[in-house]
């Protein structure tokens, strides 16, 4: 990136109680924390990353302490005046599948919360539950900013029961959101919660089952017709596929293979890290495939360790991408 950049990251920083598929149990903070740390590793010291998040008062000092050593992170958007933040229990049944329960709940990010960062070049929205970053906030950003809006579909396709269990939901209000989203990123299970025609010709539709490959193009076309610039669907260990038009009426799709890793330690936060890589790739290269290559690289870095220090420098990440794909740009 040749000029100073500013990126806002919207969502929760939950305190996660994690049981891995290997039986290891530990607690740590997550979500926005991963996105911010990954962006910090990629961006220069002159750039600025601004997390916008509500946390519990008892967690505020510990969260800020984890980010305080990063020279390009503005901590002023981490606020505890609502004294509401996420507590989440994650139990992995395999390295990509988990059972989730939420015990406390972040106050939503409202339009007034993003007013101080409306000059940002990008807004990376990584909610984990449907209410956390709402349509009014995205509309406020669109109407008052020229920044790129990246939305992780995990939020609008997830909801809570009265006892805190987290389940998939149909994103029935999808079309009212799409005009406020530039890049929609989700996995195949979240895509299946966002594409309703599949329910009409499936004998026993199961909410949260992966969207079949045969339906991905139609789903992407629907989103692109409504103003989304790119739809990226992650495919776990296979990489991702991204649909885009790049100024034409014809939808193009590119499969971007995974960045290989020797051993998967913990996949918590891989999607949040992927979103960080995508944001950097778009801002730095204005190219859909380059954005996905950075996304895959940051997701791969995240899964091989548990600490925020696991992220590589920009130079190391570019080298990693070149070793995998031959170059950053297609």
- Give the terminus-to-terminus CA distance: 18 Å
Overall helicity: 25-40%
Low-confidence stretches: none
β-strand percent reads: 15-25%
| Beta-strand segment tally | 15
Kindly name the structural category: alpha/beta
Give the ordered list of helices and strands: EEEHEHEEEHEHEEEHEHHHEEEHHH
> Mean pLDDT, as a whole number?
93
Organism: Candidatus Nesterenkonia stercoripullorum
Protein name: Carbohydrate kinase family protein
Keywords: Kinase, Transferase
Domain Carbohydrate kinase PfkB: 176-302
What are the main properties of this structure?
single chain, 330 residues, alpha/beta, nine-stranded mixed beta sheet, four-stranded mixed beta sheet, 15 strands, 22% strand, globular, PfkB_dom, kinase activity, Ribokinase-like, kinase, Carbohydrate kinase family protein
């Amino acid at each position: 990136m040749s000029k100073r950049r500013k990126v806002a990251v919207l969502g929760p920083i939950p305190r996660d109680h994690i049981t891995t598929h290997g039986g290891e149990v530990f607690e740590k903070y997550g979500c926005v924390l991963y996105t911010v740390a990954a962006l910090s590793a990629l961006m220069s010291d002159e750039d600025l990353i601004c997390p916008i998040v509500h946390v519990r008062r008892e967690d505020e000092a510990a969260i800020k302490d984890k980010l305080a050593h990063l020279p390009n992170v503005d901590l002023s958007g981490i606020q505890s005046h609502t004294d509401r933040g996420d507590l989440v229990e994650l139990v992995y049944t395999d390295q990509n599948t988990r059972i989730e329960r939420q015990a406390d709940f972040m106050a939503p990010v409202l339009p007034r919360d993003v007013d101080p960062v409306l000059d940002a070049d990008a807004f990376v929205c990584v909610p984990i539950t449907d209410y956390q970053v709402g349509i009014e906030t995205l509309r406020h950003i669109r109407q008052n900013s020229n920044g790129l809006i990246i939305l992780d579909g995990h939020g609008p396709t997830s909801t809570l029961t009265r006892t805190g269990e987290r389940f998939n939901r149909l994103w029935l209000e999808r079309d009212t959101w799409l005009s406020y989203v530039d890049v929609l990123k989700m996995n195949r299970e979240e895509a299946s919660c966002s594409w309703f025609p599949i329910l009409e010709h499936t004998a026993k539709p199961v909410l949260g089952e992966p969207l079949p490959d045969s339906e991905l193009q139609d789903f992407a076309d629907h989103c692109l017709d409504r103003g989304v610039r790119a739809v990226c669907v992650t495919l776990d260990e296979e990489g991702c596929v991204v649909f885009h038009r790049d100024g034409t009426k014809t939808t193009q799709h590119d499969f971007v293979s995974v960045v290989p890793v020797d051993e998967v330690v913990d996949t918590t936060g891989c999607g949040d890290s992927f979103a960080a890589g995508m944001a950097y790739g778009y801002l730095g290269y204005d190219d859909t495939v380059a954005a996905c290559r950075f996304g895959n690289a940051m997701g791969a870095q995240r899964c091989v360790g548990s600490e925020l220090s696991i992220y590589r420098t920009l130079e190391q990440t570019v080298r990693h991408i070149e070793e995998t794909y031959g170059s950053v740009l297609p």
